[in-house]
Amino acid sequence: MNTINKTQSQQAIDLENKYGAHNYHPLPVVLSKGEGVYVWDVDGKQYYDFLSAYSAVNQGHCHPKIVNTLVEQSKRLALTSRAFYNDMLGKYEKYACEYFGFDKLLPMNTGAEAVETALKICRRWAYEKKGISENKAEIIVCKNNFHGRTTTIISFSNDPVARTHFGPYTNGFIKIEYDNLQELETTLKTNPNVAGFLVEPIQGEAGVYVPSEGYLKQAKALCKKYNVLFIADEVQTGIARTGKLLAVQHEDVVPDILILGKAMSGGAYPISAVLANNDIMNVITPGSHGSTFGGNPVAAAVAIAALTVVKEENLAENAEKLGQLFRNKMNEYITKSNIVRLVRGKGLLNAIVINEEVESETAWNICLRLRDNGLLAKPTHGNIIRFAPPLVMTQEQLLDCVVIITKTLTEFER
Ligand SMILES: *Cc1c(COP(=O)(O)O)cnc(C)c1O
Fold first, then answer.
1. For residues 241 and 270, what is the distance between their CA atoms, to the nearest angstrom?
2. Is the per-residue pLDDT at 2 higher than 60?
3. In the prediction, which pLDDT does 102 show?
4. pLDDT band at 146 (very low <50, low <70, confident <90, very high)
5. Residue 3's pLDDT is what?
6. Residues with catalytic annotation?
């Protein structure tokens, strides 16, 4: 690495440190280009991207079909606001509703906004359809959830880093253990004011916790029994990431409310959406909810392109196949490893757990070494490293990555 280029990346880091709020702790690498499964830093060094912007880039970096759509639509019409109709939104809504199997879609921009939207729809449904007394509705959530960063959402987080000194918090949430059907049923049975159950099909940020087989199916059945809406946050797990279009489809579950974000645009644009059938979505009336940018023509066009790519390139099937291969290869390694405790995940949403305390810095140091060896990943919650490459990866590339990962881990064996 020559010193001029080193200065270039240090300059970029210094600028962020000086002028940017310190709300992230990035891995020290400065990226300036991406294509498919690869990203390049300012020195021109190439890396495999094993984060995919938290699964926003499932379709691969700068996918030509998505980028062309973005450019063409931006030149034609970018924003009208919802004060007027535009000629793209309806097309997108129809496309996405048929694609995911729902009657209606409500367009937003970020994942957190879509979660907020789902919570509002659920509460309205509780008062207008279920008949819960005003201001009494409760929504069940799970411990160690991650649903975004708004004040209401962090109100039902149990991560002190996300919550501390952001109170007072929003009421109306009951926290239960994830993957615990008994606690879900007890809570539903003893509380007639429950309106919804908000759940991640796999807890991504918490460390890729895959619930027991049958959990989602039985949770959905319990919700039905107690007339409670099953709300699936598929912002991270959705859109082919786990080897199916939606992670709930592994258990043939159809949520009452579906929340999507991230890969809705393949990373090109912030696009999120809430889908539900008419009996639920019709509680939303003119003026009751909105967003200046939500459903703009660029977002509509880009989302159609991004969802089309997922089907055309069989990304769900590829994620399923490569995910199996990845876990097999990692398990082979783990049988003779002291440093890696286990690998878990579904499709290409996986994580390894480092055999150390949560506070240990080993996972971070492994990620630094992975970076040196040409692969970018990041720890989530201390001793866990998430591996989530773009779903356009080939088998040959994946095997190449397995070599990089196992070679790097070998350096940390004791
Ligand atoms: C990332 C994420 C969100 C929040 O999405 P933003 O676009 O960052 O607001 C919500 N839920 C889950 C499960 C996520 O992974």
1. 18
2. no
3. 98
4. very high
5. 54
6. 146, 233, 262
- Domain borders along the chain are 3-59+314-410, 64-312
Buried/exposed code over 299-336 (b: 16+ C-beta within 10 A; e: otherwise): bbbbbbbbbbbbeebebbebbbbbbeebbebbeebbee
Q: Which residue has the tokens 């690498």?
A: 29
Span from the CA of 298 to the centroid of ligand 1 (angstroms): 21
Mutating to test ligand 1, I would choose from 115, 242, 378, 386 the residue with most ligand atoms within 8 A of its C-beta, which is: 115
Both structure tokens of 174: 């009951």
64-312 belongs to CATH 3.40.640.10 = yes
Instruction: Count Cβ neighbours within 10 Å for each residue of 153-188 and write b for 16 or more, e otherwise.
Output: bbbbbeeeeeeeeeeeeeebbbbbebbbbebbeebb
Residues 6+ apart with CB under 8 A from 167: none
**Whether the predicted pLDDT of 6 surpasses 80:** no
Distance 407 CA to ligand 1 centre (A): 32
| pLDDT at residue number 359 | 85
Q: What is the pTM of this model?
A: 0.97
Model confidence over 274-305: pLDDT tens digits? 999 999 999 999 999 999 999 999 999 999 99
CATH architecture, range 3-59+314-410: Alpha-Beta Complex (3.90)
pLDDT by residue (tens digit) across 330-354?
A: 999 999 999 999 999 999 999 999 9
- Give buried/exposed letters for 365-399 (b at 16+ CB in 10 A, else e): ebbebbbeeebbbbbbebbbbbbbbbbbbeeebbe
CB-defined site of ligand 1, < 6 Å: 54, 110-112, 115, 146-148, 200, 204-205, 233, 235-236, 261
Q: How far is the CA of 56 from the centre of ligand 1 (A)?
A: 10
